[in-house]
Amino acid sequence: MRLRVLGCSGGIGTDSYTTAMLLDDDVLIDAGTGVGTLALDDLLKIDHVFVTHAHLDHIAFIPFLVDTTGSLRDRPLIVHALPSTLQCLQAHIFNDHIWPDFSCIPDANRPYMRYEPIAVGKTITLGSRKITPLPADHIVPAVGFQMDSGQSSLVFTGDTTASDALWDVINQITNLRYLIVESAFSDAGQEIAVHSKHFYASLLAKELNKLQHAAEIYITHLRQSEAEVTMREISAGVKHCKLHRLMNNQVFEF
Prior knowledge:
This is Ribonuclease BN. GO terms for molecular function: 3',5'-cyclic-AMP phosphodiesterase activity; RNA endonuclease activity. The chain has helices spanning about 40-45, 55-60, 60-70, 85-95, 165-170, 190-195, 200-210, 225-235, and strands at about 1-5, 20-25, 25-30, 50, 75-80, 115, 125, 130-135, 145-150, 155, 175-180, 215-220, 245, 250-254. The chain has about 250 residues and is of the alpha/beta class. It has two domains: about 1-80 and about 85-115, Ribonuclease Z/Hydroxyacylglutathione hydrolase-like (Metallo-beta-lactamase, Chain A), CATH 3.60.15; about 120-245, Ribonuclease Z/Hydroxyacylglutathione hydrolase-like (Metallo-beta-lactamase, Chain A, 4-Layer Sandwich). Strands 6-5-4-3-2-1-14 form a seven-stranded mixed sheet. The chain has a seven-stranded mixed sheet with strand order 7-8-9-10-11-12-13, with helices on one face. Helix 8 links the parallel strand 12 and strand 13 (about 245).
């Protein structure tokens, strides 16, 4: 499996794009503004979007993706997400007010897009690839994802705060190679991080000490203005592993 980072920033601006990752050629993990960096030929290859949660920085380009490619495809784009996340997309995005309801365009028998509910712990198999939703604790219902090639796994936590349930599952993944975990705030943003159920630096450092594997760890969702200080604060509290900042266009093979 090959994962390319299209966007990993906590905001937008020059060379900053919100969360989106391309798994092989045909699967998106989240669909933030990073999707806009892809060429049309690349967009046409995408058959699946796995969504961690309904916040705009993770779903903003699903409407544009469907609108751009729908008439050029011979099968619907499948959006995989928790039932509550799918309900948000239906009620607040694809509602014929904000954007057309492409789940019934051009008609209900040949839609440009199809919803597929997922559940924590229930693996989706795409050929030889396995994608498993993992528990997360965010201000809205959310999941992370384990991507397992059979040889090794990459885990993306999505947006979350401290969660024993998440670490319990991660520590059971015997072939874990990469862990991508968020820290949306430095310690200066602790108050808003707690309110919004995001990690801040020292809390993430404390949680990373629960990891029982020697995985490579990458930090995502960093804000442009405080990325360096956030990385320093996390690293200061982590005892047993080296941390890396996730970067746009970074590629993981596993």
